[in-house]
Amino acid sequence: MSQYRFKLIDSTYTAEDAREVMLSLVNDKIKFLNHKVFSLKESGNVDTTHQEKRIRLLKNEFIKLHESLEGALEEGAEVAIDCEVKFRVLKPVKT
Q1: 27: phi > 0 → left, psi -120 to 50 → alpha, else beta; which?
Q2: How confident is the model at residue 31 (pLDDT cuts 50, 70, 90)?
Q3: How would residue 95 be classed by pLDDT, with cut points 50, 70 and 90?
Q4: Sign, CA torsion 56/58/61/65
Q5: Cα dihedral 15, 19, 25, 26 in deg (nearest 10)
Q6: Do 62 and 27 meet the contact criterion of CB atoms below 8 Å apart?
Q7: How far apart are CA 58 and CA 89, in angstroms?
Q8: Whole-structure pTM value
Q9: Which residues pair with residue 7 across a beta bridge?
Q10: Fewest CB atoms less than 10 Å from the CB: which of 13, 21, 22, 42?
Q11: Is 22 exposed, middle or buried (0-12, 13-18, 19+ CB in 10 A)?
Q12: Backbone angles phi, psi at 93, to 5 degrees
């Protein structure tokens, strides 16, 4: 098993730019999961419960994030974003 990590975002933005960056990231993940659910359902009798639950959670986070960043925008604040991506390569599951 190998591990990898990198900084995706490490900067300070205007509230407007921070809103655009963060909402785009979350929205892209929601789009990816929606496409995955659609593809899985098209391929047959596949359980998509996990993906659908994750979509609902991300949509709720999107709303909270939007509200928070709107508040920062109204205040004329800057937003510091620190986003690290970490992943592990796992051994294949034997069936």
Answers
A1: alpha
A2: very high
A3: low
A4: negative
A5: 130
A6: yes
A7: 24
A8: 0.85
A9: 84
A10: 42
A11: buried
A12: -80, 130
